[in-house]
Amino acid sequence: MYNTADSIIVGNFVGSNGLAAVGSGTALINLIIAFSQGAAVGAGVIVSQNLGARDKQKTKLAGHTAMCIAIILGVILSAIGVIFSRDLLIWMKTPKSVLKDSVLYLQIYCGGLIFNVIYNMATGILNAAGNSKRPLIYLAIASVTNIILDLVFIKALKWGVKGAAIATDISQALSCVLAVGYLLRVNSDYKLIVKELKIHGNTAKQIIRVGLPTAIQNMVISFSNVLVQSSVNSYGATAMAGYAAYLKIDGFNILPVLSISMAVTTFTGQNVGAKKPDRIKKGMWNALIMGVVYTVIIGVVILLTSHTVLGLFTKDNEVITYGQLAMKYFCPFYFLLGILNILAGTVRGAGKGVPPMLILLFSMCIFRILWIKIALPFYSTIDGVFILYPISWFVGMVLMIIYTKFGKWLPKGLNKS
């Protein structure tokens, strides 16, 4: 909702170049925060396993260590984003017509990344405890705030893309304060106490052991998406705007799938701690059914309403055409991505972060880079960029199914059959 609201309001009140400027930073933002998202996954797995085992002390240590890691990462990533935004956007072949606005948006956005990182870690802890309603409420409040501020800063004050970035930072700060505030006052094993915030060595090692593979995986996949974005950029600002508009719609399809994947990670972690393998299998199959059904339905809906939905972002027919082209290659095949991520989430919840990392690195990164270098030159249109996504999803899904079926990913003593 944050970035969708930004893009709709920017597209309508600033124009196609403004929309392209906001969209050009999406892949870079994902790249910058990818490491912290991996750390949040690692913390969530450790917290969920300790909760499942009813170990109050270890749950407490995990929560405090995780939040310290988030604060440190947030400071570092914000600084990296602000300092290197221009260099990265130039390297991505961002057209000169939108470079200035792209740099401005990305630098301001990155200035508030620390709030995003801390919020994600707080959410990881709450989700690990099965308390996913709180993050939803806080994000809803922040999203509404973001929309209101977008209208004030962009429409009323005419701040352009700068206003969109400032509105997002303020909204993310609000969600961060609300989530951390709840952790400070909740009466539970995962309650945070300010004076006890410190990094506990053994707990940090556990979080890193599970989270580092996911962090590396996220960063490398995000890097491959940066390369894909660079390929899109080479087709000009109109293609960038169309692709940027579609990526916001893409979020309404892919993010629920990733949420189901994170939920099954928590579910698996708790049942590993409780030594209940039968529930792990049931949880995995239920998650797969939900993921496939959702992606098929939403894919059909998006395709049938493509022109209307894209029209929310821009009235430029050429921009809409590029967005519709992306839809035709993406929407029918989201179920492949759903199966891939849900199986990876199940395995990750059992504490096995490396195998999913390797599979996702190959399918989402190495394969894509090879495609861009070898196959893409044979395409004269942007179709060669878009078709890469469903093919890489299929490759990853097949490999993940094989590992889940035949790999030894459950701890010793838990029967997978």
Automatic annotation (TrEMBL):
InterPro entries: MATE_fam, MdtK-like, Membrane_Transporter-Flippase. One of its GO terms (cellular component) is plasma membrane. It is found in: Cell membrane. It is a multi-pass membrane protein. Pfam families: MatE. The chain crosses the membrane at residues 27-49, 61-84, 104-129, 136-157, 163-184, 285-306, 326-346, 358-380, 386-406. GO terms for molecular function: antiporter activity; xenobiotic transmembrane transporter activity. NCBIfam families: matE. This is Putative efflux protein, MATE family. It comes from Eubacterium coprostanoligenes.
